[in-house]
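Shift notes (night). Ran Release factor glutamine methyltransferase while the centrifuge was going.
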Amino acid sequence: MATNPTYQEVLHWASSFLEEHQLDGRASERLLLERLNWNKTDLILAFKTEISTETKAQLEKDIDALINGEALQHILGYEWFYDRQFKVTKDTLIPRPETEEIIEKFLTMNAPEKGRLAVLDIGTGSGAIAITVKKERPQDCVTAVDISKKALLVAKENATLLEAEVLFLEGDLTEPVAKKQFDVVISNPPYISEEEKPLVDEVVLTNEPHLALFAKENGLAIYQRLAKELPSLMKPKGQIVVEIGFKQGKAVAALFQEAFPASHVTIEKDLTGHDRMIFVQLP
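Came back to this:
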C-alpha cells in the first residue's frame, strides 16, 4: 500500500524547489507551521511521520502561489505583529518586524503608570501600530489616519477582531485632525525614493501599495510635510516617533530639529545597527 512521504521529506522538496526559483527556502517551513498552527517543537516531533494528503496538497498549493509571485502573508491572509495576528491585503503595507521597535520605543518612554495619552498614528495601513498601542496601553486615546479608504477597512476589521477601541479617520496626513492636539505622534510613512524602485524586491512591488512605499523628494517628502504640520498638533512635553530608511537619519533629524528647535531629536538604531527611527522629545 502506497504511503505518503514524511514531513521532513516534503519540506526538503519544498525548500529545494523554492531555492531553485531564487526564493527563500525557509518560507516552506513557515507556511507549514502556520497552516497547522504548530510551533517548531511540534514539527520536530512529527519530522519522521507521514504527512497527511490534505496537508501536503495545501503546502503544494502555497508553494505554487509563492513561485507565482504572491507574498507569503497574502497567501496566509495575515501577518504577526507584536504577537498578534493582523489581516493584510494588497491594500495595506505588510507589517515588518523592524516596525515593532517603534512600539518598543514608545512603551519604554511611557511607563504603564503614566496617565492617559492622546496618541496619533499617521498612515496606519493595517492598523498594526495604532491597535498595538491601544492593546499595550488600554488607557490611551488612540486615533489613526490613512488616506486609503480600502486600507482603513482592513484596519477597522483588525481593530474589531482584536477588540481595540481606535478612532479611524480618512484623510491626507494631519488633515483629519488639524484642530486636535496629541501627546504622541507615531508614523511609519512611505520613504523609498522613486530612484530606488529598481532595487526593491519584485514581490514587494507586486503585492504592496506603492502609495505606502514611495515618496518624492528623495524619499523625504512625507517627513518634510510632517515637520511642517506637526508643531501645531503637539502638546507640551509631547513625543514624535517616525520610522526612517537606514540612510535617512541625518536628513530627517535635521528636518525635525528645525521644526522643533527647543526639542531633543535623536536618531535611533534598530537591532541590526542601522538607523531605524527618529525620536523627538518636546520640552
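The chain has a mean pLDDT of 95. The two ends are 76 Å apart (CA to CA).
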